[in-house]
């Protein structure tokens, strides 16, 4: 068992011995940490990172009788951090570069000046008083600059690889002072502020400097230097000198418990994290991170201390921050194993289809929908023109359909695949919760902007379930985000624009809960045209009854429960490894590699794409307003984005005609799902109203809108004129609904029918 009260002198010797003698096996057995100290002395580095794996290996070899030294560091980390830094100060070598190339900073000048002044002041004081200077005030340093003032590095401990990440609820009082590792979601990060670590004072009478080391968040400034100085009526207060003081970068973050670690019926807990020095700016709101640091108590100050009594708050002083999901971007790199796996996947053929089938393999069918989600995660190329015009590259997708068709499960899976993803629901989200809110910072007490779900998902995906349940005012906040990819804020004296380069994946139910075949698609969808046109792909997923399809779905679900995983092959067939779904990590790595490419559309495809777009517009015009979808210039940009995403999946910087053909096919499939023709999950035949039902609906809506119970034939012709309804359809409607007594038919002087609507008919009430 390790000593509960370690010998500080022996611990300091062990720290010094480790730094001086540990040899790095990966660099020809050179002194690993002496090399780090040399880089610090040459002003090329500011970090001394001590790996606890190295400490454990060193003392197992040098002192096998004391294998618990690394455990002592983990139990009393703050003390050993100080001892290790002091040992590094003693072992710090001189710069091995030309002295002229080492630029002096303010602390070098202060140190040299202090040595000269110290010698002069001691000699003068000895002559005048016959004795030395009195003792320093508590917390002050005399006889030279304090070590921490001249220390030009931050010392961090890197955890052992076998150290587990504790659930946030398992970090208790027994871990105070220990090195712990926790994982969570970053919900808030403050700006980087200067935090004083050494305060410099100047005696206005003698010009002598006094230094006060600050170890907490608060300190009491020095008044008179010593009691002896007060006796001789030297009552002038020391003057604080910010130029000679030392400040470190400080940032505070809030870490929230992971959803899978929250017990039933409980709310997620949060933990305050303090980042200092070079660890600052290592995470952003929305990141899934694993943080290793020292779990420490913090005493309340001010009025909070009066109310808190003996209670104290806790925080985690971060030493390392590791992203649990690698962020896509310019810094994205693959390991050798991932490169080999991607090459093997490329050689297997049909990468596009296999990756699409790997998205939520437990969900039966919907291959085209999964292909659309794959292209959404890959995305197109964002273009910024010299004049500032920006064309987004993100692909927005909306899944509209009946309850129980696995829309929410698809959203959940996408949020797990993407490194930066936020999942929210329409009913539980307000406009402020999606964009930004003005809150008061608990540290500085100033008003700051707190990013909402769309800001947290910047350069990621925001999955919004129950999109149709959102209030209209809240849904309007998404319009600017989807096209301009910014959020403009003007509230509480703060006027700014936030980046929301976010892909929107929305899931919604039809207006009446389930898709009503007797109504048009525009009535069922019940979303404004301004919002629908911003979605690149709009899929309609309906729960239709088909004996063959229902049997296959039931077999799939039963097999899923029996096997505990998605069945790869049909019943009775052998599984083919070349077509099996790829693991989640490989899927994420492949998408990350594909996003590094920036494909361009060649000039020879311009006419091909333009002709398809013109054809869509002519078809919509020929439908005389009865088309189920909107074809706008944004549709053309959607085709280009989908084509670029397909080129990225091929690891190519050039779009080919095959990419355009597949993009056009997906575009046709989405329109087919709405127009109920062909494959793609449409509502089937008969979803449109026939002409007779259309005439009846128009008459009913006119009567409900105006309150008129008498509708002449001329008005019926006026109502149906733009719907291309024939005279025979009108007469058939009049006769058919008169037969069931929904109205009575009379004749005017010209012999034209006049409908007398029934007052007691609920359809017209």
From TrEMBL:
Entry keyword set: ATP-binding, Cell cycle, DNA replication, DNA-binding, Helicase, Hydrolase, Nucleotide-binding, Nucleus
Entries under PROSITE patterns matching the protein: MCM_1, MCM_2
GO molecular function: ATP binding; hydrolase activity; single-stranded DNA binding; single-stranded DNA helicase activity
GO cellular component term of the entry, any: MCM complex
Domain of life of the native organism: Eukaryota
EC number(s) from the headed UniProt entry: 3.6.4.12
Subcellular location: Nucleus
InterPro entries found in the cross-reference section: AAA+_ATPase (IPR003593), MCM (IPR031327), MCM7 (IPR008050), MCM_CS (IPR018525), MCM_dom (IPR001208), MCM_lid (IPR041562), MCM_N (IPR027925), MCM_OB (IPR033762)
Catalytic activity of the protein: ATP + H2O = ADP + phosphate + H(+)
One GO term (biological process): DNA strand elongation involved in DNA replication
Domain MCM C-terminal AAA(+) ATPase, chain residue ranges per copy: 351-557
Pfam families given in the database record: MCM, MCM_lid, MCM_N, MCM_OB
Entry similarity comment: Belongs to the MCM family.
Function: Acts as component of the MCM2-7 complex (MCM complex) which is the replicative helicase essential for 'once per cell cycle' DNA replication initiation and elongation in eukaryotic cells. The active ATPase sites in the MCM2-7 ring are formed through the interaction surfaces of two neighboring subunits such that a critical structure of a conserved arginine finger motif is provided in trans relative to the ATP-binding site of the Walker A box of the adjacent subunit. The six ATPase active sites, however, are likely to contribute differentially to the complex helicase activity.
Protein name: DNA replication licensing factor MCM7
Gene, per the UniProt record: PLEST001009
